Each structure stands twice: as C-alpha cells, then as structure tokens.
Amino acid sequence: SSGINAEYGDTSLCQNFAAVTPPPAVTMGILCCVSDYLKTLGSSFDNVNYMYWSLAFVSAEFLFDTYLIWRQRRVVKETETRTEDVKKLMDEETYLKARSYSLEKINFGIIHDCYSYFETLGVSLLFITPFLWDFAGKSIEYLGYSHELIQSNVFLWQSSLIMAVIHLPWSLYRTFVIEERHGFNKMTFGFYFKDTVKKIVLSNVISSLIMTPLIYLIQWGGDYFFIYAWGLVFAFTMAVFFIYMDFIAPMFDTYTPVPDSPLKTAIEELASSINFPLTKLYIVDGSKRSNHSNAFFYGFFKNKRIVLFDTLLDDTCNPLLGLDENGNKKQFPSGEDDEGKKKKGCNQEEVVAVLGHELGHWYLGHVYKPLMLNQVIILGMFYLFGVLVKNEQMLADFGFPHGSQPTLMSLTIIFQYMFGPLNKLFSILSTQLTRRFEFQADSFAVGLGKGPLLQSSLIKMVADNLSFPLADKVYSSFTYSHPPLLERLAFIRDEIKKQA
To answer: How many whole angstroms separate alpha carbon 2 and alpha carbon 339?
Structure first.
C-alpha cells in the first residue's frame, strides 16, 4: 500500500541521494562484495570480539541519531513564531499547537531512544538472550519435550511477552498523555489493552508460522539454503499481502464500503481515467483510535482497492455521514459545526487530488520497484548469513556455549547486530528513494490537473495532524520519508508552470 504520511520531511538532498539509489543488480553486487570481503579477511577477525564490535556500531548509530534529532529540536525550539512562508499556510494558533506537539514528541523520543540504547547494552553485556534461550529449553524439558523448533517458538513467545511488558509504560504515556493532550487519542484504556493483546497474539502467531519452516529450511537446505529461505520469505510475504485486508485488518478496524455518493462517483471517474482497476472502495473508522488522517490503496493485478480514513474526509463529502440508521441517504451536511467553524478534513475535490497522487504511485510502478529491490536484498542477506553462521566464535562472544549453534539465535544475532551497518545503509537509501517517488507522484497528480487542489489538501493535512512545517535539512535528509510541506508545495507550483 501507499499511504499519506502527515510528517513531512525536508528533502533538499532528496534528488541527489535518490539518483544514486542502487538498482537490484548493483545492490546484489554490493552484497557479493561484502561476502568476498568477509571471506578474504575472515582470519583477521579471529581475535575480534563480535559483540563488542556490534555494540560499537550500535553506540555510533545512537550518537549519530541523537545528533540528528537535537538538530531538529533546535529548529523547533528556536522558531517561536511563524516564518513568512509559514504565515501563508497556517494561523498562529495552529502553528503554536504544532510546535508544542512536535517538541513534546521530540523530548519523549530522545528519552525513549536513550532507554532503548542502554537496554540493548544491558541485554547484550549481561547475556540476557542466551539466558532466555536456556530458560526456553528448560521449560520444554519440564513438559517432556526436547526439540530446537519447539524451543525456538517458546523463546519467540516469551521474549515477545517480556518486551511488551517492558515497553508498555512507554506506549501508555505516548498514547494517553502526549496524544491525549494534543487531541489525537480516541482510545479508552479498555480498547487499548484489548487491541494490544490482539496485536501480541497475532504477531506471535505470524512469527511462529514463518520462523518454524524457515529454521527447518536453513538446517535442511545445505549450501543452497539461502535460495530456499528467500523463496519461503517471498511466498509468505505475498500470502500476507493477499489476506491482510480481508482477514487480519478487520480484526482491528471496521472497513465500510463507500455507498453511492458524489465522492464515490468522483473517485471511480479518476480511477477509470488512468485505467486503475478499482474493485472496492472503503472508509475505515480510524477516528476510533486517533484523529490522524491517512489513505492508501492495496491489491495485486486487477483487484485494486482504496481505503480512506474517515479522518481524511470533512463533513461535506463523507458519505457515511449522509446515511441514517437504516443506511438510507440523507442530505449531506454543510460542513459547519454549531459554532460556525469548519471541521477538519478535506473536501471532495481535495480527496480526489490526494488519490491522484496515490494512484500516481501505482501508475509509475512505485509499489513493485521497492518490492523487487527488497527481495534482492533479502536474498543477499541470507547468502551473507550463510557465510557468517559458520563462525562458531560469533555466538560464543554473545554468551552462548562454544559449539552451540541454535539457528534462531544465529538469525537473531546476525540480522540484528552483525547486519547493523547494512541495515542502516539500506534504510537511508530507501528513505531517499521513497522521497523521490513522492515528488514523481506529485508531478503525476499535477498532470491530472489536480495541482492546486493537492496543495490545499496537503496544507490541511499538515494542519489537522499538527505537523511542524519546518525541518532541519540534515535531520530530514536522513529520517523523513516524505518531502516537507514547503518544499513539496514549491515543487508542485513549479510543475504546474512546466505543464501549463
């Protein structure tokens, strides 16, 4: 799917980075070079403690990320009043609310990141992971079982539950203090805990369904296990994509088909104009969780569907507000509340403009290109895993007994720690690629004649979501997946002139 992200980042470096984003062949070349490098210099790592090396990178990454967020905090903190450009986009009250919201999220994020960093150090240096693995083994022995696959699943479930409990206070504070204070949270405690339990159970079931056959294939597959492992992950990913919206997502939200209405007609006309194979159109009740807005499409081949969050629609175009309790159409509301103030959301023309941008991602192949690139990366990482897993000293450095090579623990240590530098590199490149796609989708929407309406919809979404409109260039170039509001508006304005 391709969603609307309300946190727009600055992309002054976007096009330069995106221009050098490696295609699949180049990406595979990078991974092969890394593999050859590890093989050639393997002997030089004999005296290296792999845990210390990994934690050194974790520390460097933490310091770098902290430096970036402090840069953004300085921008938000020091810009106490609107700049001339911002004055054209939002009023003083909205700006001050967005600034306060952004500062509180940044301060919370800094504290949480510090905790997460020291948690990682503690888990590693105190050998918590091998302790939990051993505890999982003793647990199944007590029940009369002794098998690595069973032990692996017990480890996954117990680790997930422990982490959920540890991080629960952080989640509660974020939801019921920060989000509540700024008018976004709509969940009750009962709804929150019910939702959390469902997420934990579902995530563990999915983890077991993929990890059990993956561990078996790695143990059974011999020298070419990485091909089988990649094939399994690819097939599982595709299966989840196919069933998610029909079976998983409805467990958490209600997806209501959009009834016959001016909005439905306008969206169908837009889809038809570019041959988008729209089969279903839904509105999801996102407002029961939060006031943040979003929209996305999903599906494969000739079975595409569009989902609109009810928070994206203002009262003038939300067709569900035009139905009585029997599902019969009523007169559409005027869009004015009791005090004469216009409610949040976009009108019909602006919603169609937003979808013009979203369908541009489909038209330009932005969904399948990253999917293909990710598969190349996953295949390459499984190959590198096969190179590294032969080193018994690696797990020993993380506290496991010499000669002990449980497959799940090898996957955890290598993918989480040893691949840290690669994960960071690909994350940065992915961010640049995504921002480039956003500009291209904006250009596509302008080509549909939606430029001015797209601009007004972006301004409304930023204001509705209290997104701070200014960003530090260095911070945003590494962390924001969407262009910043001001830069995006300028790009659309230039595209309108070019295509006039």
So the answer is: 36
What is the 8-class DSSP label of residue 305? E
- The pLDDT score that the predictor gives to residue 36 is 56
Q: Which DSSP letter does residue 290 get? A: B
Query: pLDDT for 367-382, tens place per residue?
Result: 888 888 899 999 999 9
Helices (H), 290-419: 348-363, 368-388, 392-397, 407-413
Reported as a single tens digit per residue, the pLDDT across 448-475 is 999 999 999 999 999 999 999 999 999 9
Compute the distance between CA of residue 311 and CA of residue 293 in angstroms, rounded to an integer.
5
- The SS3 assignment for 469 reads coil
Phi, psi of 51 (to 5 degrees): -65, -45
Alpha helices in 225-308 (DSSP H): 225-243, 262-273
Q: State the Cα torsion 376-380-383-385 to the nearest 10°.
A: -120
Give me the pLDDT at residue 450, please.
94
Q: List pLDDT tens digits, range 14-27.
A: 333 333 344 455 55
- Active-site residue list: 358
Report pTM. 0.84
Q: Could you identify the residue written with the tokens 């210390």?
A: 52
Report the relative pairing of strands 278-284 and 304-309 from DSSP bridges.
Answer: parallel
Element (H, E) at 257: strand 255-257
How is residue 355 written in tokens? 């979808």
Q: Is the pLDDT of residue 328 over 60?
A: no
Nearest alpha carbon to residue 159 among 209, 204, 218: 204
Q: Is 454 helix (H, G, I), strand (E, B) or coil?
A: helix
What mean pLDDT is predicted for residues 481-499?
90
Helix (H) or strand (E) run with residue 306 in it: strand 304-309
Instruction: Average the pLDDT over each of 28-32, 315-319, 450-454 and give the range with the smallest value.
Output: 28-32
Cα separation, 23 vs 306, in Å, equals 29
Residue 202 belongs to what H/E stretch? helix 189-220
| Residue 414 in tokens | 């290598």
Give the pairing of strands 255-257 and 278-284: antiparallel
Q: Is pLDDT of 125 > 90?
A: yes
* CA distances from residue 17 to 36, 199, 249, 284, 433 in whole angstroms, order as listed: 26, 36, 35, 35, 8
Q: Could you tell me which of 498, 409, 410 has the C-alpha nearest to residue 446?
A: 498
* 14/431 Cα distance (integer angstroms): 9
